[in-house]
Amino acid sequence: MSELIEHLRGIFEHLGPVRTRRMFGGYGLYHDGVMFGLVADDSLYLKTDGESVARFEARGLGPFTYRHRGREVAMSYYMAPAEVLEDPQEAALWGRRAYEAALRARAAQSD
């Protein structure tokens, strides 16, 4: 397991228990069974939605993208601000926002 994954488990301690699961060459970060983060290429991305994406865009942080059938596909996970990796309080704040965005997305799917 990468050092970054171990670090993330610790830095998100104020959010609550965080589990990781290997997926697509990276990892998913889960809190209470809900995926709120994605680690790909040793970078952390956090779940966004219409309510939260502006915070990321205002800081010049972009979405996770991948190539599919010759075109670039953007997901609703945006690069985390650097301070999330350094400060447990910031990690809890941004992690909580990402978790709430994931909950809203889940609720919208069940409607």
Tell me what the structure shows:
With 111 residues, this protein is an alpha+beta fold. The chain has one domain: Yope Regulator, Chain: A (2-Layer Sandwich). Helices cover 34% and strands 34% of the residues. It has three helices and six strands. The chain has a six-stranded antiparallel sheet with strand order 1-2-3-4-6-5. It is globular. The mean pLDDT is 93.
Task: Give the CA-CA distance, first to last residue.
Answer: 37 Å
Strand order of the largest sheet: 1-2-3-4-6-5
User: What is the overall silhouette?
Assistant: globular
**CATH-derived architecture:** 2-Layer Sandwich
- Tell me the CATH superfamily: YgaC/TfoX-N like chaperone
CATH class: Alpha Beta
Compute the average pLDDT. Answer: 93
Helix content: 25-40%
The class by helix and strand makeup works out as alpha+beta
CATH fold category name: Yope Regulator, Chain: A
Number of helices: 3
Low-confidence stretches: none
Give the amount of beta strand, in percent: 25-35%
Number of strands: 6
Helices and strands, in order, run as HEEEEHEEH
Features:
single chain; 111 residues; alpha+beta; Yope Regulator, Chain: A; six-stranded antiparallel beta sheet; 6 strands; 34% helix
Concise structural overview:
The protein contains 3 helices and 6 strands.
